[in-house]
Design goal:
The chain is an alpha+beta fold.
Length: 303
Amino acid sequence: MKFLSFMFNDKQQLGLLNDTNQVVNLSALFDEDSNHGFNPTPHNVSQLIELGDIAIEFIQQKLAQEIDEKYLLNPQNLEILAPLSPKKNIFCVGRNYRDHIIEGNIARGVPAETFPQAIEFFTKPTTTVTSHNAAIPRYESITNSLDYEVELAIIIGKKGKNISVADALDYVYGYTIVNDITARNLQQKHGQWFKGKGLDSTCPIGPFVVHKSGIEDANNLAISLKVNDQLRQEDNTTSMIFNVQTIIEQLSLGMTLEPGDIIATGTPKGVGFAMKPAACLEVGDVIEATIQDIGTLKNTIVN
């Protein structure tokens, strides 16, 4: 199931992309059935997660029936929103693909074969969150090196702490795409990554959250990114040094993960600042971040 959030009749609505590429207005279906007992009606994926597995069962029952055409919408006519409204900063994993680490080391003039011994965690504030098709500022006055990073993101489905690798996938609700837009000069200048990765509207998310039942193996998904139709990044999540289960285990040590938390898992090789010559983002660039079985997240750089 591919969930999304969108605007319809000036209201935020929860939707599902069906097999015929139509959006089912789930919020309207919830409102229609007064016997379901859910309160309030979910209008985004964050609210759907809070309702638990019983809401998924309700949706499955509705989808097994014939859906009235009034609840079926053309996605091309909709304003797609970020699917979630995170309560906390977005958790992120740095340097999690071997070839990306090597290209970054070379670009920074450090030994190429220098790899992290433990997972490198950082965060992006909630003010970075933006949506599919949203415009992303170029920030010309503060950065000469705005860059892209396609990433698989884990969505947490239930509260947990000190989660084992064996149990980790039980805490996953689903997966989405994150583009970790980064101001490289600020990342380097401040000695840690928060400022360079914390500019407003530099974390597009979506367009869909795919329920975990729709992803056979999140550790084996093709992942890629194009800028103006030019392929820049291409790899597979099998190349991650730390896989989904290990990331959840390590992040949850002594730290409570909650429903709706977002964890970006790192980016593969091919980022702009490491190219020769460097090819960072400029006004007018169109970025398309794609992950197998999830979709394509598209954004444009503007003044």
